Amino acid sequence: MPTHSQARTNNAAAPLYDRMEERMLARDQVGASQAFYEVVKAGRPLNEILAEAVRIHAPYTHVPYHERIDDGYVNFVNNDHCLLSARATINLTRMVPETLAMLPMAQTIWYIPTGLDVWNQKIGKAPGHYTRAYEGKIENPPAPAIYWPDSEPLREAGPLKERLGHWMTQVHRGQVMEAYRSFLGLMEDKANRREVLAELVFAGMIDVQDRMYLNRSYTTGHKGYRARATVELGDALGWDNAHQVIYAGALDIAVGPRWYSVYEMACNTIKTDIEGQTLRAIPYGGVSEAESAMLRNAAPLSREEEEALIRTLLHGAEPENTRAVTLLLRAGKDPRRIIDAMQIAAAQLTIDTHDPNNFSMPMHCYEYCNALGWFFDNFDHPRRLRLLYVAAEFISMTAHHQKHTGEMIPRPVPAPAGADRLSKPELLARIDQAICLQQTDEAQGWVQAYLDNIADRAPLVQALAVASCKIGNDPHNQEIPQNMLEDFAKNRSPQRDRLLLACTQHCAGHRKYGDILEAARRFGEGVGVALQ
Questions:
Q1: Is the sign of the CA dihedral 147, 150, 156, 159 positive or negative?
Q2: Average pLDDT over the chain, rounded to whole?
Q3: Fewer CB atoms inside 10 A, N or C side of the chain?
Q4: What's this model's pTM, rounded to 2 decimal places?
């Protein structure tokens, strides 16, 4: 009996998708992209292409475990970025000009052949994104492996709360297939589907490592990002056509290792600092009225309060960081606006990073703060307040890491002399050129000139979105700028221009691989559009 994920598009474009699948599984970036160009020229809609791309990669983007011990050393096994790239595509498509609407998808297609079977890549048996640093060519690699096959739903009886609790226990214990089958059964409960999805994202957002400095095995919040991608793609495709998305995204939530000590700290901070209790050696559970009441706070942060919080997160240490959050909550400050300030703090970490190889922690810290804002905007999960404390610790851990690896050095770049005499199109052209040439200081200077002289931010947002979509060979080039540009539209901080500077710093300064413009150049030639 075929599994759900084997269902596929049944239309005249099927041969084109067959060709795209064949080339992807052969790890052929050029061939897969050429097949994609034919799909685009055939006028196939973006959602259909997304569904097919996820269907193709879903079986091959899982790993047995996100960590190995090799001859006494703990080594990290990376998280999938094919699904995250597809999620970024949905949002970037709306940010770029209509003529370039398929460029974000082109970057996803270009990456997928290099993103399959990460496990074998990490042990040097398969070519791809994670073997770029290996010397020599990997001869006769095996076909991409399937470590967790698709399965059928496990339909369980009982109240929703009990079923969700049972699923969370399976996740916590690392019962991968049992948790996946339970989740499929939960998703069949259409009346309660949003609560099920909220719990999926929450299960990802509480899974964050408890240290960063001198660690190379970490989650950096990826379980939450993958869960968010699952939700956004499922919403876009329609859940009746999204089984392949669930398989690609939800199954991984129980794959180990899992880290919950930062979240445990958040729970206990709520218990002591919000509820005023003394911790005892007894089991706790549930959500108190005191905790729920904080979610109803509506007061904005003053400029002074925002700056004090940012200063504490970046330069303080535990428990100063969590106490700063508690003081704001007790003062009636809106948790969502506290997240706005956290995003500014996380953006500053990116701005103050200058080594191309040292962006990993700041960019994932920002991604967590972005995902947290998105979670608050889309779900009313009763325990979401606790995630503010997780985010506070994430930011402070990142700041500590950056300070001790030679970063956290403010290096503001002034606008170039005479920039005030340039027109808006001239400034945007210089920004694009500097980013594509990876001239970080020059790009920052031209963006500062735009901010100083042009009030309309929309053209700058679009230009940064286009620049991020030109740069290929790593989905972070699209994911992180998209996060920052998304937040620029929603963030209410008076310092939100910092998000545009952080976006520029990441676009121009973050480590790149190979010919970064190859995928965009091939796309332009393949479908007959001019890149701006």
A1: positive
A2: 95
A3: N
A4: 0.97
